[in-house]
Structure formats: structure tokens, C-alpha cells
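C-alpha cells help. Our protein:
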Amino acid sequence: MNKLNKGLAVVLGLFLIMIILEVSLSLAGVIFLRLKNISQPVKKEAGDLAILCLGDSFTHGFGAPQGKSYPEQLQELVKGQTNKNITVYKEFRINSSTILKHLESDIDNYRPDLIIIMTGCNDTWSLENLDFFTFRELDCIKKMDIWLSNSKVYKLIKIGFLNARGAIVKENLYFIQEDDMNKFYFKSPEAQRHYDSGENYFYEGESEMALAEFKEAVDLEPRNPWVHWRLACIYNYALHEYNLAKDEAMLVFMYGDSSMIGKAFIALRDSIMLDGQNNDEGFYTAIKEMGSIIENTYESEDKDKAKRYLRQLLSYCRNDNEIKRVVYYNLNEILRITQQSRIKLVLMQYPMRLAGGVEDSIKSLSDKYSIPLVDNCAIFEDRLGRFKKEDLFVRDGHCNANGYKLIAENLYKVLIEERMFDDLGNKRPSN
């Protein structure tokens, strides 16, 4: 009996310690966030409302002049909807994993009442901030992990485990950080100026002018992988010069390192697929050439990292179910965080159909949890039945100002139908 009593005492003691630790971590988190919020960059007056739009280039407004992205056009539409001031913010997040990674800090910074998310397009190729280990687990383990992640103690133990595991067995856990992708600085201010001008023209859909600026930049710095990547994008999606796009993608591999492989990979893959060479032979011939470049030009440690990343990309981009699973998992976590923070969430489809069936994951989550969904794809398809494509899109596939206006109008209509403004603030009395 003494041994049994001692055993029970130990178990109860451990349980009590876990409870105390859980409460302590929760209180510490609350105190930290309150102290952190003292110097937030966004000044939000009492009673003001904030809408935060998170997403990739379609949220940032690539293809349209500055000030004509859908969040900025939504700002004009929501004026006067309530007695309170409404401000619409936007943040560029390249994929759903990156949205999830930055979500809590974005909430701290902007303190939004409503979050709009349009993501998934780049998940078909970008592994940035994706923990590949998470998506190799069995479904039951993933579900248990999601449930236990509500516990601060569990997350503390998990972070410690992952850090130790990553240090001991690096090949089993690899993160692509967006900070790693900004190391190829320009040495020449003139090259930087041409590149920045090219970026501005590219985002506004002026492909020929962007091409001229990028060519000036590459003449000054022929070994800078960023310029070659932008040239590959223009040749692929705007000018449809697929052989030139492939050449530029190979130069990204040649002059870059493991942090540039994701961009080079998708540019190379699309140069083959868009040219009607969507076959395994052409694709894997290009992959073999990529592997040869990595083997012959990369440094030893970065070479191993590049090979591992390339294998992950090959596995990931060829598996539609894996892509949908990643997007669903990330959106599910995003929903959990917004619910805990008592923030309303709206999901949006892209204005076109995506590779990998990503829109299925978005709709599935929307249906399951009754999250408002803006079906831009269906609305754009209906509109394109009556108008020309160039009325809504630029040559690289992004929306123009009219296209983003339509997205803003679609979103605004759903916000009205869902009575979002009634919930966020009292409507102005009608005259």
C-alpha cells in the first residue's frame, strides 16, 4: 500500500506541476502580449475597426497600379458602413504556411476585428515555413497533435523536442525560411535601381518595360539569381517564350543556392508544362540537369540541403493530395487561432482554378465550419463569358485594377450578406 500511495502521490504531484506550469505559461503569454502591444505600429483608437487581408501576390496587388489592390479598393467600399472608422490593412504572405507562422504576430500588430484570407496558389510549389515532418505523420497522430497544441506545456515540450531533433537529425526536419531568400544583395546601386524599376513595372503588368529594366540589371550583374528569376517569370507568364524561361531558370540554379531552388524549380517546371511538354520524360530530364548543377556548383553543406529540398519539391508538387492536406491543415490552425482571439474570418477563392485542387480544401473547411466564402472563381468565370480576359487580367495571369475591383466587390457583397458590419459595429442610421 505504501508503494501504491507513493506512486499515486508522484502522479498527482506531476499532474499538479503540469497545471501550475500551464497556468504560469498562459499568464506569462498574456503579460508579454500586453507589454508588447504598448509600442504597436498600428494606432487603433477605441471603437475603431480593423480588417486585415492576408495573402500572396493577388492580395498585394501584382498586375495593378499602386493603390488598386483589392484591399485598397475594399477600403473605399466600406466607408460609411458603420458609425466607426474602418481601416483595411494588407500583408504579403507567400503561402498558407507563412500566413500561419506570422498570424499571431499579425494579430498583435494590427488587432483586427476581421481577417480575410486568400491563399493556396503558391502552396503548389513553395515550401517556405512548411514543417515537412508534420505532414508525414499518421492522421490520428496529427489529430492528437492539433488537439494537444491548445496546451502551452505541450507546445513548450514540442518546441524543445523539435529543436533538439533538428539539431541531431537535420535531414529529417528542414525549414525553408523566407529570411534565407534575401541574401543576394545587389553590389551595384545602378543594377538595384533597374531591378526595382522592373519590379514596379512587373507588378503593374507592364511586361515589356519590366523586361527592359531587368535586362539592364542583368547586364550589370550577370550572376545575380534574382534578376534571372524575374526574367524567367516574364518569359513564362507574360511573353510565353518558354525556351528563354527555361534558360533563365537554369541560371537561377547556377548562380543561386538552396534558398532559391523553390523559385527556380517552379519556373523550370512551368516552362516545360506551358510549352505543351507536360510529360515525365521532359520533366525528369530537366530535373537531372538541375541535379547536375547542384552537384557541380554548390558548396558541401548547401549541396546536401539543396538535394534534400529538391527531393521534397519533387514529392510535394507531384502529389495533389499532399498539397490539399497542407492547405487544409494550415487553414484549420488559422481558424483555431482566430476563434481563440475572437476574430471573424472570411475565406476567398482565387479568380481562377488552381493546380492540385487547392480550392477543394478551402471549400471543405468553409462548409465544415460555416466560414463565409467568397467564390471569386465562379464569379470571374461568369464574367469572362461576357467580357475579354484582358478586361480583368494582365498577361502574367494576375488581375488588373478592374479584376481587383471585382474581387473587392465580391468580398463586399459577402460581408453585407453575412451581416458582418452589423456584428462589427452599429450601422449608420439611414437618412
About this structure: Strands lie at 49-55, 86-92, 114-118, 344-348, 373-374. The chain has a mean pLDDT of 80.
